[in-house]
Design goal:
There is one protein chain. The chain is α/β, with parallel strands linked by helices and about 260 residues long. It has two domains: about 5-150, Rossmann fold (3-Layer(aba) Sandwich); about 155-255, Beta Barrel (OB fold (Dihydrolipoamide Acetyltransferase, E2P)). The protein is about 35% helix and about 30% strand. The chain is built from eight helices and 15 strands. The protein has helices at about 5, 20-30, 45-55, 70-75, 90-100, 110-125, 130-150, 200-205, and strands at about 10-15, 35-40, 60-65, 85-90, 105, 155-160, 165-170, 175-180, 185-190, 190-195, 210-215, 220, 225-230, 235-240, 245-250.
Length: about 260
């Protein structure tokens, strides 16, 4: 007679601040690993941590960059026997770091072939777990990616288009950035300019202590925030010092303004 432990289906959580990508990953996993039970989807670090605590899943698929807590921070708080897979859009330097730390990862956009490899590795690890592997790998990964972040040069100037002209804009003069179809709009006191750099790539080059992402499509210069307003439904908007429009803060990033 099969034991209860042996018969139990493996469980997993998926954490990504892009819900569409989290749902897609869950869908592909259901095809590639029908026995896997997804216990929840989280849109930010604190929600992922809560799922880890409440559901104690066997596996955690974690986006690296999430509001509240990063994927690395969430992984450090997981149980020692939780298998961690990072889902990332990081550059090749960081991917080399993942390889050197012996931590599993899948690149965005997630391919079925790469995910199938990860599934096979996870099945093998669940069959013969080694609790020390994950925490040791996380320590190495934190050092490697930390060194990468510390040496990364921050943006100081941006070349942006204003009509037929190209302007050189000091990032300190930017009030906020906003996704705009194929472009990113750069709003300053003087007006609006356009750059082709995607918002997520732009975020990598900005100083995170001075520029906060407040919405999937918006990054704000913290020095430009004059005040915050919270309506009865809990929705937060920002008033700026040098622009008349108000900036909507999505619920995933509202934690930044709890003390404001």
């Amino acid at each position: 007679m099969m034991s209860t432990v042996a018969a139990r289906r493996p469980t997993a959580l998926i954490a990504d601040d892009e819900p569409r990508l989290a749902r897609y990953l869950a869908e592909r996993l259901s095809v590639l690993w029908p026995d896997l039970c997804i216990v929840g989807l989280a849109e930010n670090g604190p929600a992922a941590e809560a799922l880890l605590r409440d559901e104690a899943p066997d596996i955690a698929f974690l986006d690296i960059r999430m509001p509240g807590l990063t994927g690395l921070e969430v992984a450090r708080r997981a149980a020692r026997d939780t298998q961690v897979v990072f889902v990332t859009a990081f550059d090749q330097y960081a991917i080399d770091a993942f390889d050197r730390a012996a931590v599993d990862y899948v690149l965005k956009p997630v391919s079925d072939a790469r995910l199938a490899e990860t599934v096979e590795r996870l099945k093998a690890r669940l069959a013969a777990p080694r609790a020390d592997d994950v925490q040791a790998a996380l320590a190495v990964l934190a050092r490697l990616t930390g060194a990468s972040a510390a040496t990364r040069e921050r943006l100081a100037w941006i070349r942006a288009s204003v009509g037929d002209q190209v302007r050189l804009i000091n990032v300190e003069d930017v009030c906020y950035f906003q996704s705009n179809d194929k472009y990113t709009s750069v709003f300053t006191v003087d007006g609006e300019a356009l750059i082709r750099t995607p918002l997520k790539e732009l975020c990598d080059g900005l100083d995170p202590t001075r520029f906060w992402q407040v919405h999937r499509g918006t990054i704000v210069n913290v020095a430009q925030i004059r005040s915050t307003d919270r309506d009865l439904s809990g929705r937060v908007t920002l008033a700026l010092k040098s622009r008349p429009e108000r900036i909507l803060v999505s619920r995933a990033y509202a934690y930044r303004f709890k003390q404001m």
